[in-house]
Amino acid sequence: MLREYVKQYFSQFDVLVISILFVFGFLWLIPDMERIHIWMALAIGMLSYAISEYLIHRFIFHMKPPKVRWLLTMLKRLHYDHHVSPDQLHLLFLPVWYSLPLIIIAGSVAFFITKDFSLMVAFVTGIMGYLLYYEWAHYIAHQPVQPITPWGRWMKKMHLWHHYKNENYWYGVTNPALDVLLGTYKNEKQVKRSSTARNLEQSDMK
Ligand SMILES: [Zn+2]
Ligand SMILES: [Zn+2]
Ligand SMILES: [Zn+2]
């Protein structure tokens, strides 16, 4: 059964593109593997994604619907519509027209700072590796299947609270670190059910 999920996951266009780029990045790094800085850049890339996962979800994906038409259309595809139809696969994964430009910008900044091509590749490979982990965790959270690890089961529960209990809490998908630090992690029983958890575009009309 897990095989079927793995197959469906990797047959998503956006996941496939990032996976291929991730493999190329990894292959590029093999001759450089003994450099400790390569591993540090990989780790920093992963950490950067883990932090932006929370910040982007909370402050951009959940911002009040913008008046500018194309921005609204973009946010609907990136997140609002995912809250309306959490099980729709074509709304679940971050599209490459969104993720790739951000990865390119992050890579350019890394190259500007380090002036080292391999360090830049390591940094973006770390970002893409964590992005794939995020997409997998998010995909499994919305499939009728129990994650294998206790951590996975906890994260899935937390993400479903975000969708079905109250969208103003539990923004982390792979980890609750920033939720705990910034006060959006609450005991689920002490949080009131939100009437706008399925319809983010209505949350500013109250
Ligand atoms: Zn979700
Ligand atoms: Zn798609
Ligand atoms: Zn959300």
UniProtKB/TrEMBL annotation:
Membrane topology: Multi-pass membrane protein
Stretches assigned to the Fatty acid hydroxylase domain: 43-184
Signal peptide annotation: none
MF term (GO), any: fatty acid 2-hydroxylase activity
Transmembrane domains' residue ranges: 12-30, 36-56, 91-113, 119-136
UniProt KW Transmembrane helix keyword: yes
GO CC annotations, alphabetized: membrane
Cellular localization per UniProt: Endoplasmic reticulum membrane
Short name of any one Pfam family annotated for the protein: FA_hydroxylase
Domain of life: Bacteria
GO biological process assignments: fatty acid biosynthetic process
Record keywords, A-Z: Endoplasmic reticulum, Fatty acid biosynthesis, Fatty acid metabolism, Lipid biosynthesis, Lipid metabolism, Membrane, Metal-binding, Oxidoreductase, Transmembrane, Transmembrane helix, Zinc
InterPro entries assigned to the protein according to its UniProt record, in alphabetical order: Fatty_acid_hydroxylase, Scs7
CC cofactor: Zn(2+)
Full protein name: Fatty acid hydroxylase
Record organism: Brevibacillus laterosporus (Bacillus laterosporus)
Phylogenetic placement of the source organism: Bacteria, Bacillati, Bacillota, Bacilli, Bacillales
